[in-house]
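Hello forum,

I keep getting stuck at the same step: I have a sequence, I want structure tokens, and every attempt I make locally crashes halfway through. Rather than fight my setup again tonight, could one of you with a working pipeline run this one for me? It's a single chain of 455 residues.
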Amino acid sequence: MNPPAAASEPLPSRWTNRRLLVLIWPLVIDQLLIVLMGIIDTVMVAYLGEEAVGGVSLADSINVVLLQAFSFLAAGGAVVCSQFLGKRDNKSARSAARQLIYTVASLSGLLSLVMLAARSAVFHGIYGHIEPGIMVQAEKYFFFTAMSYPFIALSTAGSALYRSMGNSHVGMWISFLVNILNVLGNALFIFVFKWGVAGAALSTLLSRFAAAAVLLGMLYRARGTPITLEGIFRVHVDMPLIKRILKVGVPNGVEGAIFQVGKLALSRLVSTFGTPAIAGYAVTNIIMTIGNLPGLAVATAMMPVVGQCVGAGDTKSAVRYTKKLILLSYFIMGILNLGFILFMPVFFGFFRLSPESLGIARQGGLIFCTAAIFIWNFAYCLPYALRASGDAAYTMIVATLAMWFVRVGFAYVLARFFGVGVVCVWVSMVCEWLVRGCFFLFRWKSGKWKEKRLV
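Reply #2:
Ran it on my machine without issues. Output:
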């Protein structure tokens, strides 16, 4: 077993350009598969009728908030593992991995039980009055998907642990597995057994269970890797280590959940502008989702890269790799979003939009793509490097305040007091990016993140 490295010992030159590329490209495909799964699910559920689509949409709006929180919590735990690996303390990295699994399993299991018991109250509390038909479908779908929380939390944690070791291929193949199982399950339960929305939800539950089982099994039987879950059934709770994980994971999780809630508030505002605005906004969201994919992949790669550098006490390498990855993100985000701007008419041709909806979508798409080329990286890529150092509380505070006071608050002010239409959502988005980017760049330049090392 490798001994911990001394704080002054430099990090080996392990993140070559080739290794960075090998880490990043599976993450791009992984992000694409996640988006594709949502699209395929929607198309297959649409066969069941409008009430089913409405119910699934309402349930998934809640699920996304909660699952985003677990995704960020798992990423926070993986930061601790990355820093131990950078320090060459594999024993502590393995211990941290086990504590992460205990933590996400306990929290997600508890949340699942609470949401199952209070699902009716949750729907009425969030959405108010819902048509009875849609409510029935929403509760059916939510019943099974809420049971899947522990499995998606565990699979997310497993993928994050592999990424902390510099292996993103496993997460990509698991996403392939989930997509295939979900499509096959939907086809069987919806079209053959005629189980409706419950069948679609059961397919989701089983595919997530399979992903968690495969990932945890691989980590348990892993040999010759820095992190393994061997011995996880000899339960030993290490509270000091769990506190380190939660120090990053909780702010990450809160930030992710609050961001999703803010998006729901904006969607509610858009709904007040009428059907053309809703349709145009929906199509623009597709552009935004795809346009962010490569940048999010690079940002995710920053977690293990910067985390290992910080764990080794090599902040110079952390700065160097952060600059390199941000430049790479600028390059690929620039090419993709410039392509969207040039070929936007071709893209919109796939949607049967009214002239008014088309104009709204084109306006939103141009604003997003232009801002994504120049501003997005400092607002959304750079904070991943700060989180990897352990500076998660700062990113949570800035992201939360920017989301609610700038993106949501400014949008409502423009709409209610100045009569600005749906474009207010994209104007406030750009303003939020600028505010976030300035605060994160200032924090990075100040060097205070270097003092947040967790191990």
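The two ends are 18 Å apart (CA to CA). If your local run keeps crashing, start a new thread with the error log.
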